[in-house]
Amino acid sequence: MPQFTLTLSCPERAGIVHAVTSFLVDHGCDIVQHQQFDDDVRGKLFLRTAFSCADAGVDDLAREFATVATEFAMEFELHDERKPRVLVMVSKAGHCLNDLLFRWRAGSLGGEIAAVVSNHEDLRPMAEAAGLDFVHVPNTAETKHAAEQRLVELVEEYQADLVVLARYMQVLSNDLCSKLAGRVINIHHSFLPGFKGAKPYHQAYDRGVKYVGATAHYVTPDLDEGPIIEQEVLRVDHSFDPRALTAAGRDAEALALSRAVRWHCEHRVLLNGNGTVVFR
Which residues lie closer than 8 Å to 156 by C-beta, 6 or more apart? Predict the structure, then answer.
């Protein structure tokens, strides 16, 4: 039977789960997975319920569930089993793109990669070898506004539900961040804000760090400070020179980003203030 996923958040009160499950039972739905989190600090409940239903479509279910949502002041989303379409943006480093492509072709990414966009030509062969469109959009100080307008056009053209900055080395404008709020995921090393600049792993080596890691988060106008979805940490020691630290960091970046993309595409991530609730 067709599969659906309901996610919601609302103020905590009695009867929420009963209302949701009763609605699903009354509509002939079979619950296959249910997860919830009660945030006692903020007084909110977060819920993700996956279910099957043979007798209704996603639009009809969403329209009828709106009555329940209004009663409990819920913010909710209802999705069918269509995989979200993903637009991947890159610059010159290919490790994150390569990992995303592998997982996409293996069927474990959770979404469908629609195209690859870059401000450089370096990764065209990798994208085209995977059978994907590669769109070169130069982005300089003089062309930044036009480049971002082109990105908006590409999101619409490819009907992208999610934009993934897979080591895309350009800062998005506040306006673009607002237009695509909740739909852009970025990855970066977890040394920020400590080790800024072009060679963070060299700085880490000089300071004798014992951990390297990566952070995947939603993009907001506050640079590298959006709600965190996933972080990966690896233990290192004095034997790791800058090259080895960089290699370890790339592994962490690829892992954290692929998990964040999959969880987003499977509707497992709910915003909770400046943070997230992730139903794994």
Answer: none
